[in-house]
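User: Hi! I have a protein structure encoded as tokens and I'd like to know what sequence might fold into it. I'm fairly new to this, so please keep things simple.
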């Protein structure tokens, strides 16, 4: 069986193996960001001619979600039934250049922590920019120590905000670690505030949101400045949970985190996120358990 691709590239087909498997084996490039799990659409091909097998269940589900036409197939699920002609969809020169980056992506179950300093904008209006840099660096140092101590990694700083990831080193309890770090951050904030009060007559209040679930991690950004990060619904939801701490509590966690840390009796609240039909159940850590 012959699988003919654009640019005169060819793959020798086999009835029981997918086009992607054969392509990888025979050194033909097909982008496969999710590594053949039917969880992306980068391995799409257009079936120009020839007979192919029906969609697998996983492929059908993704095709329905993305509204893919009948002749657009996932090469990681596609098996051929004779000579075929296929055309890769993700294939121009830039796509090829980014192939390594796309293929570095990986789905993981991780805990995500977002934190933010309340009313930081008005705080920064009252102080000199050099002072703010000094204050923030001291604050980030303290918070970073808490994250490190609980096997987390600070993913990025967003102004006065922090995003941290837990579970990257294969640790089996990312949500427990994330909660441990959150409590440690609150504890360290007390010491930091003593310094801030003495030096600048101010104190910080912070909000921390925690969520646990599936994310895609990988290198993101321009090839010369790409950095490792996590993206996906879990990350967006964690950021929204942190926003919801305002006027409510210091540490707010999602249901999956609440289950993992085996907490009980915390005040619960519901949050309806944009584009979702079901509200999210959130739990506020009682003051007495914050440190
Ligand atoms: S590699 Fe992601 S769907 Fe095929």
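Assistant: Happy to help. Inverse folding works backwards from shape to sequence: for each of the 291 positions I chose a residue that suits the local structure. Here it is:
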């Amino acid at each position: 069986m012959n699988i003919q691709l654009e640019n005169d590239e060819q793959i020798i087909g086999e009835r029981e193996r997918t086009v992607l498997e054969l392509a990888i084996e025979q050194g033909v490039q097909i982008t496969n960001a999710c590594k053949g799990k039917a969880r992306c659409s980068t391995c799409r091909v257009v079936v120009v001619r020839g007979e192919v097998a029906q969609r697998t269940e996983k492929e059908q589900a993704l095709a329905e979600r993305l509204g893919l036409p009948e002749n657009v197939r996932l090469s990681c699920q596609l098996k051929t039934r004779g000579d075929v002609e296929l055309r890769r969809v993700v294939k121009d020169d830039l796509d090829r250049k980014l192939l390594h980056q796309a293929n570095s992506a990986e789905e993981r179950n991780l805990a995500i922590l977002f934190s933010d300093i309340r009313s930081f904008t008005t705080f920064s209006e009252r102080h000199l920019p050099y002072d703010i840099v000094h204050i923030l660096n001291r604050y980030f140092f303290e918070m970073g120590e808490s994250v490190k101590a609980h096997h987390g990694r600070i993913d990025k700083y967003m102004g006065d905000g922090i995003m941290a990831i837990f579970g990257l080193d294969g640790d089996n309890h990312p949500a427990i670690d994330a909660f441990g770090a959150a409590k440690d951050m609150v504890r360290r904030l007390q010491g930091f505030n003593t310094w801030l009060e003495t030096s600048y007559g101010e104190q910080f209040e912070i909000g921390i949101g925690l969520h646990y679930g599936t994310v895609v991690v990988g290198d993101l950004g321009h090839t010369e400045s790409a950095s490792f990060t996590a993206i996906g619904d879990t990350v967006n939801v964690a950021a929204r949970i942190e926003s919801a701490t305002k006027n409510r509590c210091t540490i707010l966690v999602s249901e999956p985190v609440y289950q993992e840390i085996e907490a009980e009796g915390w005040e619960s609240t519901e949050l309806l996120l944009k584009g979702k039909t079901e509200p999210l159940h959130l739990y506020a850590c009682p003051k007495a358990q914050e440190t």
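A useful reference point when you look it over: The first strand starts at residue 2 and ends at 4. Feel free to ask if any position seems puzzling.
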